[in-house]
Amino acid sequence: MTAVAGPGVGATPRGSRLAGNYAPLPVTLAWASGAWARDVDGRAYIDMLAGYSSLNFGHRHPALVAAARDQLDRLTLSSRAFGHDLLEPFADALAHLAAPAVRGGAPLVLPMNTGAEAVETAIKAARKWGYDVRGIAPEQATIIVADGNFHGRTTTIVSFSTDAEARDGFGPFTPGFRVVPYGDADALREAIDETTVAVLLEPIQGEQGVVVPPVDYLPAVRALCDEADVLFIADEIQSGLGRTGATFACELWGVQPDLMTLGKALGGGIVPVSALVGREDVIEVLSPGTHGSTFGGNPMACAVGLAVIELLGSGEPQARARSLGTHMHSRLATMTTAGLLERSRGVGLWAGIDVDPAHLTGRELCERLLARGVLAKDTHGSTIRLAPPLTIGSDDLDLALDRLSQALC
Q1: Average pLDDT over every residue of 218-223
Q2: Is there a cis peptide before residue 172, judged by omega within 30 degrees of 0?
Q3: What mean pLDDT comes out for the span 281-297?
Q4: pLDDT digits over 358-388, tens only?
Q5: How far apart are CA 72 and CA 212, in angstroms?
Q6: 142 phi and psi, to 5 degrees?
Q7: What is the mean pLDDT of the chain?
Q8: Residue 48 above 50 pLDDT?
Q9: The pLDDT of residue 70
Q10: pLDDT for 9 beyond 50
Q11: C-alpha span between 101 and 112 (Å, rounded)
């Protein structure tokens, strides 16, 4: 597919009654397949964002669409007041996929809908485990998090965000969190005390600009949590399910968290699906009535989720992320050496790139890319993220990187 650039690219105005909590790029998409999308005017774009890793398998992957279509003819929603025939198979399949990556043998799976819901579920489970098992005094449990984190936008989660835009105007904030510098094991050690029930971290910070920690950091986090009998919760919502070349990013460092939050790609870009996965003795503290979701684990979600797990079970998406990622990072390093980029970083098919703020903002670079038929998203000033579908062809990836180089000139 050939992209067409021209004036007024995708500049269809949003509906006048739509809330303005987003400032999207001036494009209105109407169709997509694989790594390509088209706008309402028929212009074509290479998708280098992939729905913030929700579209790891590309737009409308045939196996995922088939699973959804088949389920539409059978059962779409039962609510958790009743069981359905895919709920336990989905939990079993996800537990099997995650078992090598988490502590405690065969994990439990608690299905939810969005990533933020999975994180909220992890927070609740950790606190209740702290009270019921660790004997923490009532209302005193604390959770340690990292600066630069992004775990969602609920009122509890933004309470421990260090992004002023995410926090300002939304207080009073939920207590019980301590923020330490990301990548600093010594600061984490000092923050742990008798009230600490968990450490909640992204193995790689996505929203912050695909920030990869020092090689010894996550092993140190695991050791400190073991020493203090504290849970390590890994937020793998963006980094998990193949994006980094491993099924879960923590595997890159040989580290097993006690709990993992999953989402985004688990729904295949078709339906919202998330889950908390991890130690049975922790998750089982959530007894009937203490937590739930009308749509969590619904039949449509389980049908698509099962198909996603089957794709990952082959190992092919992970292998593509490794091989294509090596090529992508090599090309980005060349752009850095040539002075087009200030720096680049990342792992697998996931990169954060920084441009000179005196030359371009991240938004301006994304607008230049849009005019050249490439979809990307800025974050934090002059940083943008690249996260193409793991199914992208090598020629399409090179075409997108060629256009990035052109946009930087």
Answers
A1: 98
A2: yes
A3: 97
A4: 999 999 999 999 999 999 999 989 999 999 9
A5: 40
A6: -125, 150
A7: 95
A8: yes
A9: 98
A10: no
A11: 20
Rounded CA-CA distance 266/386 in Å is 19
Which residues have C-beta within 8 Å of that of residue 53, sequence separation ≥ 6?
206, 237, 238, 239, 241, 243, 264, 265, 350, 387
Section 123-143 average pLDDT: 98
Q: Are strands 44-47 and 374-375 parallel, antiparallel or unpaired?
A: parallel
Residue with tokens 């929203």: 207
Task: Fill in the DSSP letter of residue 212.
Answer: P
**Beta strand 177-180 pairing with 274-278:** unpaired
Strand pairing partners for 66? none
Give the tokens for residue 372.
């050249």
pLDDT score of 16? 75
The rounded Cα 31 to chain-centroid distance in angstroms is 23
* pLDDT per residue as tens digits for the range 163-187: 999 999 999 999 999 999 999 999 9
Three-class secondary structure of residue 39 per DSSP: strand
CA distance 5 to 372: 6
- CB proximity list for 306: less than 8 A, separation 6 or greater: 67, 86, 89, 90, 93
Write out the two tokens for 295: 């749509």
Which amino acids are annotated catalytic?
150, 235, 264
Q: What is the DSSP string of 335-389?
A: HHHTTS-SEEEESSS-EEEE--TTT--HHHHHHHHHHTTEE-EEETTTEEEE---
What integer pLDDT is reported at residue 42 of this predicted model?
98
Q: Is 169 helix (H, G, I), strand (E, B) or coil?
A: coil
3-state DSSP assignment of residue 38: strand
